[in-house]
Amino acid sequence: MHIVMISTLVIGLVGLILGGALVTASKKFYVETDDRVTKVRQCLRGANCGACGYAGCDAVAEAMVRGEARVDACPGNSTENIAKIAAILGKETVDQDPQVAYVQCAGTCDATRPKARYVGIADCRAAYLSGLNFGSCAFGCLGLGSCIHVCPQGAISIRDGIAVVDSHKCVGCGMCAKACPKGVIAMHDRTTKVAVRCSNQNRGPAVKRVCSAGCIGCGICVKQCQQGAITLENNLSRVDPEKCIGCGKCVEKCPTGSIRFL
Amino acid sequence: MKNLILIIVSTALVNNVVLSQFLGICSFLGVSAQKKASLSLGLAVTAVLTVSSLVAALLYQYALLPLHLEYLKTIVFILVIAALVQMVEMFLKKNAHGVYQSLGIYLPLITTNCAVLGVALTNVQNGYSILESTVAGLGTAVGYTVAIVLLAAIREHIDQEAVPAPFRGAPIVLLCATLMAMAFMGFASLG
Question: What is the pLDDT of residues A203-219, one digit of tens each?
Answer without folding.
Answer: 888 888 888 888 888 88
